[in-house]
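Let us work through a complete example step by step.
Step 1: write down the sequence.
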Amino acid sequence: MSLFVKKPLGSLLAEAQDTGGHTLKRTLGAGALIALGIGAIIGAGLFSITGGAAANQAGPAITISFIVAAAGCAFAGLCYAEFASMIPVAGSAYTYSYATMGEFIAWIIGWDLVLEYAVGAATVSISWSRYLVKFLEGFDIHLPAALVTGPWDGGVINLPAVFIVVLMSSLLIKGTKESATVNAVIVALKVTVVLIFIFLGWQYINNDNYTPYIPENTGKFGEFGFSGIIRAAAIVFFAYIGFDAVSTAAQEAKNPRKHMPIGILGSLAICTVLYILFAHVMTGVTNYQTFKGQDGIAPVAVAIDHMGTTDAAGVIHPDYPWLNRAIVVAILAGYASVILVMLMGQSRVFFSMSKDGLLPGVFSDVHKKFRTPAKNNLLFMLFVSLFAAFVPARVVGEMTSIGTLFAFILVSIGVVVMRKTMPDAPRAFKTPLVPIVPFLGVATCLFMMVFLPLDTWIRLIVWMLIGFDIYLAYSIRHSELSSKLPRTASQSNKVVGWTGLILALVLAGVAFLHHYLTLEDQKKDASITPDTGIYYFSLIFAALHAIYFGSKIAKKK
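Step 2: predict the structure and record it as C-alpha cells.
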C-alpha cells in the first residue's frame, strides 16, 4: 500500500552524498554539533521549571526526576545516534521513520516535530520578551506596555518577541556556519553562569534541607512520593528537549557518520551533569517549600537570596546579589539559542518533507549564495513572528514534552525495525544491547507520557487530527514515492479515515474523562478553574472529524 511505502536506504545515502546547488552546505564539526545541542537544551526551562517541580511534585528528589528524564533521553539518544550515522540527511526522526515504517508514520512524526519546534520557538520568544523587559527595568528603562504584550494580554503587539524571531531567522538565512558561531558564544555564556551558580552555591548547602529527601505523598497522585518523582520527571523532561535537534543538521555536518553521535550524546551527557548539580544546589541552599508559588526566574532568585550570611535577627544577607542579574542575562542568551536551534530544526524537517513531495516545493528551495533553505526560513519567520506578536503566552512545556516523547518512541521502535529489515546496512555507530535499549527507551518515554495531565493529551490529539487533514488534502496526492506506485487512493483514504476516526473517538473520551475529573476536583477545591471551554471544543472538534473521516471510509472506489 502506498501509505506505507518506505524510502529506500540507497536513495537516502545518495541524497547525503549529493553536492549540487540544491543541497545544504556542510560546515559543522563535532564541537559545533555539541554546542548546537547544548544551545537547544539549556534554556530558561532549567531556571524556572526546576523550582516549581521541586516545590509541587518531587521535593529534593527532583535530582532523581532529572536522572529518570535523562535515562529516557539517553535510551532515545543512542537510537538517534545510530540513525544519524547511518542516514546522515536532514529531517531527523521524520527521515528515520520514512526509511523504517513508511510514509504515513513519517508524516505523523514530521507533523509532531512541528509541534516541538515551531510552536515551541514562538512560545519561547514570548518568554524572551518578558525577561528582556525585566532586565531593562533593572536599569530603569521601561518599555511601553502596549508594545511588549499582545492584544489578549492588554497590549497591542509584542515587538521584542518579533525582534528575536527575526534576528535568529536572519542568522539562519545567512548561513549555518554563522549561526553556529553565534550559538557557540551564547552557549559559552550561559554554561559559565550555570557553573558559577553551582560553584558559589555549593558552599551554602545545608544538608537539613534534604530531609526528607522524598517527601511523603499528600494523598493526591503526582504530589510527592514516587508518583511525584515521575510526574516531575515528565515535567522537567522539557528542559532536556533539544538534543534531537542536532540530528536535523546531519546534512550540514562535515563528517556526519562520525560527528553526529558525538554531537547528540555529548551534548546530552554534558547537560545531564549540569542539570543534576544545579538541582542539587537549588534544593540544598534552601528548603524546597520556599519555591512554592514562584515562577519565571523567581525560584533561582530565591536560592540566590539564601546564599549568604545570617545575622543575629535570623535575616539572610545575600553575598552575591549581582548573580540574579547574571542569571537573567543567561536566560536571555539561553532563550535566544533555543529559538535559533528550534527554527533551524523545523526548517530542516520541512525541507526534507518538501523534497519528498509531502509539502509544497517552496520549503525545499535552496538559496544560491547562502546554500540555506532561505524561503523556508522566511515563511517560518513570518508565521512564528505573527504568533509571538499577537498570541498570549501559554504554558506549553508539557505540550512540547509529549510531542517529543512521542517522537522518541517512534525512533526507538525504528532502530529495532531497521535491524530486522536491513541487518547488513553500514552503521558507523551501533546502538548497544538491541532490542533492550530501544525497548527501555519506549518504556521510559511512554511511562512519562502517561504521567502528563489529560489536557496535554487533548492538545496532542487535536494537533495530530489537523495533521491528518493536511495529509489527506495535499500530501497523499503529491508524494514523490506514492505517485510512482499503482493508484490505491481509495484504500489509502480508508486507512487514514479509520485511523482518524479512532483518534477522534479517543479525543472525545479523553475530553470527557478530563471534564469528569475536573468536576470531582472542584468539589474538593472551589479555586480550581472549570475546563468548560476545552471540553466543548474537544467534543465539537471530535464530532466534525468523525463525520469527515467517516465519509472517507464510506466513499466508494
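Step 3: interpret the result. The first strand starts at residue 308 and ends at 310.
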